[in-house]
């Protein structure tokens, strides 16, 4: 009787242990599948993230070309710059929380204070505005600063072309 009781407990214990082992094996396989799916999802998100970055860069380049073209063709008038300049100045309030250096913010302010920029200054301001967009692209003022800089590049290009025509 004692032997039957021990055999009964051993068989019950063996059944429980084998059930746990089968369950552990099954869970291990499921976790491996889940892990593989997460790796696949991570790879897809990495691809999407790089496409979003490229799309953002394409939009910035498109906006620069379009606004500079309009300004250089005289469609955007210099007299209308004060509106865009005022909007761009609002961005200076963000200076303390920005990765741009104090010198770069000072230079943005300095160039915004000028009524006319050389082509080199306008290009410098546009480069600084690009940095602002990458940090504050969620703020409309960042895009307005970028538009302003593109107008200034277009106007400077127009002035340079006019000076060349006058020299000939």
Tell me the layout of helices and strands.
Elements: H1 2-72, H2 81-89, H3 102-113, H4 119-136, H5 140-167
Structural commentary:
This protein is an all-alpha fold and 168 residues long. α2 (81-89) crosses α5, α3 crosses α4 (119-136) and α4 (119-136) runs antiparallel to α5 (140-167). Helices cover 82% and strands 0% of the residues. It is built from five helices and no strands. It has one domain (49-167). The chain is rod-shaped.
Please, what is the oligomeric state? single chain
Question: Ends: how far apart?
Answer: 120 Å
Shape: rod-shaped
The count of β-strands is 0
Q: How many H/I helices?
A: 5
Q: Give the helix proportion (percent range).
A: over 70%
Low-confidence stretches: none
* Computed structural class: mainly alpha
Query: Radius of gyration over alpha carbons?
Result: 32 Å
Number of domains: 1
Average pLDDT over all residues: 84
Q: Characterize the main sheet.
A: none
Strand percentage lies at under 5%
Instruction: Tell me the series of helices and strands, N- to C-terminal.
Output: HHHHH
């Amino acid at each position: 009787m004692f032997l039957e009781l021990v055999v009964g407990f051993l068989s019950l214990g063996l059944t429980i242990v084998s059930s746990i082992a089968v369950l552990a094996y099954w869970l291990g396989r499921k976790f491996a599948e889940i892990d593989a799916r997460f790796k696949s999802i991570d790879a897809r998100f990495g691809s999407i993230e790089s496409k979003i970055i490229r799309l953002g860069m394409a939009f910035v380049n498109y906006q620069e070309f379009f606004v500079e073209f309009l300004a250089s063709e005289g469609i955007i008038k210099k007299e209308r710059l004060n509106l865009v300049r005022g909007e761009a100045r609002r961005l200076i309030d963000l200076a303390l929380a920005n990765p741009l250096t104090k010198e770069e913010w000072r230079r943005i302010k300095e160039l915004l204070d000028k009524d006319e920029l050389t082509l080199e200054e306008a290009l410098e301001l546009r480069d600084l505005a690009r940095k602002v967009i990458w940090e504050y692209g969620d703020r409309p003022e960042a895009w307005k600063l970028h538009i302003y800089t593109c107008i200034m590049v277009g106007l400077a290009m127009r002035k340079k072309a006019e000076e060349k025509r006058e020299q000939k």
